[in-house]
Amino acid sequence: MSFRILGTGMCVPSRVVTNDELARMLDTSDGWIRQRVGVRERHVCTDETAADLGYRAALDALEDSGCRAGDIDLIIAATVSGEDTAPSVSCSVQQMLGISCSAFDINASCSGFVFLLEIAAGFFARGTAKRVLIIGAERLSRITDWEDRGTCVIFGDGAGAAVLGEGSEYLCSKFTVEGGSDVIHIPQHTGKSPFFGRETASPYIKMRGRETFKYAVEAICSDVNYILDSNGLNIDDISYIVPHQANARIIDFAAERLKLDKSRFYQNIELYGNTSSASIPIALDEMNKNGLLHSGDLLLFTAFGGGLAHAACLVRWTKN
Ligand code: UT7
User: Which residue is closest in CA terms to ligand 1's atom 38?
Assistant: First the structure.
């Protein structure tokens, strides 16, 4: 027993920030961002929190699933940018939904949504949950250095969610963590302890772009090959590869190295930027709502990012 996906949802804040708007704040241009990253615009919170976005994505996913909030017996959220350490994003969503159930957060950076699927599968396998709400919710604008053109042009805010029910459609997964705090680092507030002697680092995303880029291409290629090989599948058996939306060129490079047409990879980074743990569930919701998915379709999710961590899994879509 694992699960099947009953419904999906998403939410992005209404404020859109275009590349041209960024170019008025920084030494960058619409042309550079489109060509090097593939982003045209991103959504940025003005007064919403990560939990607010997660809540709205959850309502959307509940409606799509036909379940009531009260049917949910576990909420798990993935985030690196929730406002509060406590309550966690999942606990805040639980309170907003007005329900009583178990809830906790995880942090696996941009790979968070794939880790959520694996954790949820464990609850279903043990029979300790019948309906699980999983959410990737990020307000990355909170932890973005808006003066660093090497990072701030990439990211966006948003949330994606899915409602899972009992089933056997989670077919295979792989998780890899390799260390790499010098490649991607998001320091926290160091506190005021008079006993702690380390220097305070500014609490914003620091990333060595080129190293991350190479790591990401490698991660996608090795994980896609692993999922195909270990299931005796051919790429034609897969309806879509749904990658973490970090940079359109990462997907282009991976497609070329895998000798695949890039249309095999679902892409929507142009409109949202990189929303970390929210990027795969937002993509999934778009695919679902736009009628791209059919019962029996095999979806291969592949994600990579801070940790350094990468993760991939295979899910059979059975909704309608
Ligand atoms: O989601 C988590 C994982 N994150 C990722 O996967 C991100 C992976 N990395 C990337 O997406 C890309 O490496 C970046 C988008 C971050 C950077 O693109 P790049 O093609 O790797 O550029 P670069 O860092 O090699 O920089 C090339 C040039 C540099 O100028 P010089 O040294 O050649 O004069 C940069 O200073 O581009 C410059 N540059 C910019 N120019 C205009 C860097 N950022 C910008 C910018 N606008 N925003």
Answer: 150
Task: Indicate the pTM of the whole model.
Answer: 0.97
Task: Tell me the pairing of strands 74-78 and 102-106.
Answer: parallel
What SS3 state is found at 151?
helix
Catalytic site residue 244? yes
Structure tokens at 228: 């195909």
- The Cβ of residue 195 has, within 10 Å, a number of other Cβ atoms equal to 5
How does pLDDT run across 244-272, given as a tens digit for each residue?
999 999 999 999 999 999 999 999 999 99
Query: What CATH number should be reported for the domain whose range is 172-316?
Result: 3.40.47.10
Distance between CA 247 and CA 91 in Å, rounded? 31
Catalytic status, residue 110: yes
Ligand 1 contact via 150 beta carbon (within 6 Å): yes
CATH class of the domain comprising 4-168: alpha beta
The secondary element (H helix, E strand) that includes residue 228 is helix 209-230
